[in-house]
Amino acid sequence: MKFPGARLLARIVLALVAVAAVAGCSLIEDSSKSDTAKAKVGDCINVIESSAVDSKTEPVDCSSDKAVYKVAQSFDKKTECAADYTSYEETLSGGTTAFLCLAPNFKEGNCYNESSATGYKHVECGSSEATFRVLKRIEGKADELLCGADADGFRLIETDPKVTFCTGKPKA
User: Fold this and answer.
1) Which residue of 117, 120, 161, 169 is surrounded by the most CB atoms within 10 Å?
2) Quick one: which of 35, 82, 92 has its CA closest to 60?
3) At 142, phi and psi to the nearest 5?
4) How far apart are CA 58 and CA 55, in angstroms?
């Protein structure tokens, strides 16, 4: 005996099973990524520990002093970032699972450690690790002439949004 609508009910059940299977695969793939790799454009990242090969990072609120980087671009494969960005790559079984282009997000008055091998890290200004202090942060312009006589250095972010960081020696 056949019931009217039984075929429709079977199609709906199969469609729900297919959706659950696809969502399950997506959740499994996403669960293998770190919280940093799951960060979206506009999110900020703190570098807890860093080395030339591996870094320990975490997403943080962008208003935090520890929000050293802001995610400018996010990709599923290795990509070329703009010259004034740092990159973050996460791999699993030899393949790239996340690739982020990160812009500096320095705070005025804060100190940072800069390493060519490991990038930037927020540090206390009295620390022996401190290599520079941000004297001024100028939004919307990439022009070192805006820094003034107090600054002995600068970092320009020329990609959008443009930012000028006027830097000086860290002071205790």
Assistant:
1) 120
2) 35
3) -120, 85
4) 10
